[in-house]
Amino acid sequence: MASFKSSLSFILLIALLATSSLLVASAGNFNQDFQITWGDGRAKILNNGELLTLSLDKASGSGFQSKNEYLFGKIDMQLKLVPGNSAGTVTAYYLSSKGSTWDEIDFEFLGNLSGDPYILHTNVFSQGKGNREQQFYLWFDPTADFHTYSILWNPQRIVFSVDGTPIREFKNQESNGVPFPKNQPMRIYSSLWNADDWATRGGLIKTDWSIAPFTASYRNFNANNACVSSNGVSSCSSSSSPNSSSSASTSNAWLSEELDLTRQERLRWVQKNYMIYNYCTDTKRFPQGLPTECKS
Ligand SMILES: *[C@@H]1O[C@H](CO)[C@@H](O)[C@H](O)[C@H]1NC(C)=O
Ligand SMILES: *[C@@H]1O[C@H](CO)[C@@H](O)[C@H](O)[C@H]1NC(C)=O
């Protein structure tokens, strides 16, 4: 009996180890999921695909993109931004489709002098039209460690989150005539580049090339809950077909996820304390009236 018990606990231990290694394995691998697209050696995939770094010097920045295209998803990435004096640098991390009426969901991190706050700039384009900027300060130093930046994109809403805290929600308001990104698959893109003509205090503070190269790091990409789109076929339409396994149907809950009351309260907390620009309140910019989606 004793030996039966101990072998049972041994089996349980093995099962636990197997599950946890599965969880680790399900965090994305940069070699598998991404390709470096520019920068002539300035972008690097390290540690067997667990880490990616982008760098920028006076000659060039660098960038990468996802191999897959997605049509809806809940996508997480951990970023550690350029530390120290990062004034003039911009780290862009976004989803975008192609063509002249493209859709796009943007995170952009505008660097600053040492000790001065980064600006997290966000935008949503639908059918080629953006002009929907919201900007935030963060409640932590984004250069001291990795933090998780997430996009939930389903047919009803786009939610931008930082470490699980929602900072922005863009709802589907097609019923009010506002186009919503829902037909064009998007790829994930990221780049580190110089934008000292506008990024830091409107271009007042220039990049200090004497301290180049500047480096931003990425890890723990997760798109386990996302619909990969390939030649017009979505991975979700096959897994949500009748009689799909129960795990597939529960994992598709994100496709109709909304913000519960707790998260709505967190969103209001961020918007009240950390939002520094909101196009929806910029009446000077829109003398003809605020954009439709701002009115409700
Ligand atoms: C940089 O710091 C200044 C001073 O605190 C601040 O006004 C500005 O919003 C910060 N961020 C950027 C990107 O300019
Ligand atoms: C799904 O399962 C139900 C009940 O088990 C069965 O009656 C039905 O034919 C199945 N449908 C498909 C498409 O396999």
Q: Could you say what the CATH architecture is?
A: Sandwich
How many strand elements? 16
Compute the separation of the termini in Å.
67 Å
CATH topology: Jelly Rolls
What structural class do the secondary elements suggest? alpha+beta
Please identify the top-level CATH class: Mainly Beta
Helix segment count? 5
Helical fraction: 10-25%
Subcellular location: Secreted, Cell wall; Secreted, Extracellular space, Apoplast
Signal peptide: 1-27
Protein name: Xyloglucan endotransglucosylase/hydrolase
Function: Catalyzes xyloglucan endohydrolysis (XEH) and/or endotransglycosylation (XET). Cleaves and religates xyloglucan polymers, an essential constituent of the primary cell wall, and thereby participates in cell wall construction of growing tissues.
How would you briefly describe this protein structure?
With 296 residues, the protein is of the alpha+beta class.
Walk me through the structure.
The structure is a single chain. This protein is of the alpha+beta class. It has a single domain (2-294), classed as Jelly Rolls. Helices cover 18% and strands 36% of the residues. The protein is built from five helices and 16 strands. The chain has helices at residues 2-26, 30-33, 235-239, 246-251, 261-273; strands at residues 34-38, 44-46, 51-56, 62-66, 69-80, 89-96, 104-110, 119-125, 134-136, 147-154, 157-162, 165-171, 187-194, 214-230, 233-234, 275-278. Strands 1-4-13-6-7-8-9-16 form an eight-stranded antiparallel β-sheet. The longest helix is centred in the N-terminal third of the chain and has 25 residues, at 2-26. The protein is globular. The N and C termini lie far apart (67 Å). The site of one 2-acetamido-2-deoxy-beta-D-glucopyranose has 2 residues, from loops.
